[in-house]
Design goal:
Keywords: DNA-binding, Nucleus. It is found in: Nucleus. This protein is an alpha/beta fold. Among the domains are: 36 residues, Arc Repressor Mutant, subunit A (Orthogonal Bundle); 59 residues, no CATH class; 237 residues, Ribonuclease H-like superfamily/Ribonuclease H (Nucleotidyltransferase, domain 5, 2-Layer Sandwich); 44 residues, no CATH class. 41% of the residues lie in helices and 7% in strands. The strands form three sheets. It has a six-stranded mixed sheet, sandwiched between helices. A two-stranded antiparallel sheet has the order 7-8. α1 packs antiparallel against α2.
């Protein structure tokens, strides 16, 4: 048996070019074989139709090239809108597609293994594993149209209120941005080197999880103001700025920024700094819309000093805030490195409030570079002032929430998808988020030529609702190990199916099956019936006349409310005192009545005792306590006996028989 020849390495394009050159009679079969390194027998088979151009000598692929391309686009789009897929989710999605299409593979339960995933990632280097950043819904709903509106309103405000108008923004030295961020005393440590296979890998840390607020401010010309370190408390036994005396000390009860401290910083540090640098007025100070930045004192101060205090778009700091976009990321990275170096040099010690400033200084010096400031203002579109400089990919998650609204509610928010968007040949999605292979209407092929006979919307009326729901129920009738968040309900009548004819079984160039149409969908926001509270939209120019008037009205309203509260408090105190007096009188009467009742009981008890004593002894006079033969008289109430002469009644003219029966009441019973 002869030695088998080795396989030649040649690409599909080489085969196509070789066949084309032979068909055009530009080359012979031998010359084409040498030129493109393709075997002659392979070229002859392609010319004679024994095998297609896409055929290969290998097992059947799990997914065809067109299907893999569609899957890659779906993975990328899901990551852009904030619903990125993990490796495990991707494998289960492929399994669901294979199960739905009735395909049999070499994998157990049709679940691709890690080798297939590795080869898939290698075939498509445009995707890779990344660590996502958390994005709240408030920031996820920020659309491109809202960004454009903010830029338009900003330019309109400058044009209407200042002679220079928008030309003010051409001077980079007059544009500043200030923002706060928290720096934990014990930041999270990254990955470290350790013995392979170690079960327990530790990193010593402090039990104190508190953080220090840092206020940073920089200009478009890389002028950094000394940072303000905001410590909780009012009195310190230590020097909070030890090791970093250039910084500014801030103190609040909670350790967070408040309106009073921010106003103090603007008055004592920001205005002083721009005066020392002789910056031309007016000067811009761009901040977010936090309540600590909006107060009447700060607004009046900025207006008197010709400082334009202007708020950025709400919930858009990750897009329009230069300090957030380029400064805080490197600063926190250097902060982690500084903490790690401090703990390495001082074993057993940790960063405390007393050592925070000295450790933070090195991080601040390393992070505050010229490049950071320039890129921060450029990437946010603030200098040069242009909305086109803003990174549009940061607003792509808003597509999930915009899709659930009508065009009227969006205010024609189609700029991102129309004139500002570039032409893209990737698969598009319909209104329900389903991928469509061909935007043009297609005809439904015969049942023998399609894997699933789904009907388009034109003939959907001929299908019963029961049949449609049955198809959808089959999609969800899967084991619980699948990831249901990646599968969205889709009406089969709204799915456009691209039919494909059966080609060579070894070909990777095959049209995707209808399973992709049903399963590769993007999520939509669920409509809710909850009514959201509408808030009054405040002007962005905090130092403007309109905002100052609103703040004055708020202050007056607050004072009126406080005065009304004081009045109500006084009224409540008066009512309380009157009620207390009334209750005191009632209590006094109650006590007097109780006292009389007790005295009466005591008297009755003493008389009963006397009566019992008299019953056990001879008859005695209750007044003189003597027993004589004189005439006695009895009290009708207490039955006490008295001598007629001791009773105090004149019986001189009364017969002795009448004295005994005289109705007498003693002095004690009167």
């Amino acid at each position: 048996m002869g030695k088998r020849n080795k396989y030649r390495n040649y690409a599909l394009e080489d085969i196509k070019n070789a066949v084309q050159m032979v068909e055009n009679k530009s080359m012979s079969i031998r010359s084409a074989s040498r030129q493109y390194n393709v075997p002659k027998t392979t070229i002859i088979d392609k010319l004679n139709g024994r095998s297609s151009l896409q055929a290969r000598s290998a097992p059947n692929p799990v997914l065809y090239d067109s299907e893999e391309e569609m899957l890659v686009h779906w993975v990328i789009d899901m990551a852009k809108i904030g619903y990125g897929q993990t490796k495990q989710q991707l494998l289960y999605t492929v399994k669901k597609i294979l199960d739905h299409g009735g395909r049999k593979t070499r994998f157990k339960d049709n679940l691709p293994d890690k080798d297939w995933l590795y080869a898939f990632m290698k075939r498509h280097p445009e995707i890779s594993t990344r660590t996502p950043q958390k994005l709240g819904k408030e920031r996820a709903v920020i659309s491109w149209q809202k960004i454009k509106w903010w830029f338009e309103d900003f330019a309109k405000y400058l044009t209407e209120n200042y002679e220079e108008g928008i030309d003010i923004l051409k001077d980079a030295s007059r544009i500043y941005n200030a923002d706060e961020s928290g720096f934990p005393q014990d930041p999270k440590s990254g990955k470290i080197l350790a013995a392979k296979g170690s079960k327990n890998v530790y990193s010593t840390c402090s039990a104190d999880k508190s953080q220090i607020t840092v206020l940073a401010c920089m200009s478009a010309t890389a002028h950094y103001l000394p940072p303000m370190l905001v410590f909780p408390g009012e009195r310190f036994r230590y020097n909070p700025l030890e090791g970093f005396t250039e910084a500014v000390l801030g103190r609040t009860k909670t350790g967070w920024m408040d309106s009073e401290l921010f106003s103090t910083w603007v008055r004592d540090h920001f205005i002083t700094a721009i005066k020392d640098r002789k910056v031309k007025r007016p000067v811009f100070l761009l901040v977010d819309g936090h309540t600590s930045h909006i107060s009447l004192e700060t607004a009046q101060l900025c207006k008197s000093e010709n400082v334009i205090l202007y708020c950025l778009l709400e919930h858009a700091s990750h897009i329009l805030q230069p300090c957030y976009v380029t400064l805080f990321g490197p600063l926190k990275k250097h902060w982690r490195d500084s903490v790690r170096d401090y703990q390495f040099k001082n074993p057993g010690e940790f960063v405390t409030k007393g050592t925070f400033a000295s450790v933070f200084k090195s991080a601040w010096v390393n992070a505050t570079t010229v490049d950071v400031a320039i890129k921060g203002f450029r990437h946010t579109g603030l200098y040069p002032f242009s909305v086109e400089n803003v990174d549009k990919s940061k607003v792509e998650p808003s597509a999930v929430f915009a899709r659930a609204k009508s065009d009227q509610d969006l205010g024609n928010d189609d700029d991102m998808n129309c004139k500002d968007a570039q032409v893209d040949s990737r698969p598009v999605t319909n209104s329900s988020g389903t991928y469509i292979l061909d935007p043009e209407p297609v005809q439904i092929a015969d049942e023998a030529e399609t894997e699933i006979a789904l009907m388009p919307s034109e003939i959907c009326d001929s299908i019963s609702c029961e049949t449609s729901h049955t198809i959808v129920e089959k999609l969800h009738d899967q084991p619980p190990c699948l990831y249901p968040e990646t599968i969205i309900q889709v009406n089969p009548c709204n799915v456009n199916v691209t039919p494909h004819k059966e080609t060579n079984k070894h070909s990777r160039e095959k049209a995707p099956s209808s399973s992709f149409e049903l399963l590769l969908v993007t999520p939509n926001e669920q409509e809710t019936l909850k009514k959201r509270k509408t808030r009054t939209v405040l002007p962005k120019a905090v130092s403007g006349s309109e905002m100052i008037k609103i703040l004055e009205n708020r202050k007056q309203q607050k004072e009126d409310e406080q005065e009304m509260k004081e009045k109500h408090k006084i009224d409540r105190e008066l009512k309380r005192k009157l009620k207390e007096e009334e209750n005191a009188k009632k209590e006094e009467k109650k006590n007097e009545k109780k006292k009389r009742t007790e005295e009466k009981k005591k008297r009755k008890l003493s008389k009963n005792q006397k009566k019992s004593e008299k019953s056990t002894t001879s008859r005695l006079c209750s007044k003189c306590l003597l027993e004589t033969d004189d005439v006695y008289i009895c009290c009708e109430i207490c039955s006490s006996f008295y001598h007629a002469k001791c009773s105090g009644v004149d019986f001189s003219c009364v017969h002795i028989d009448d004295i005994v029966s005289f109705p007498y009441e003693c002095d004690d019973c009167l």
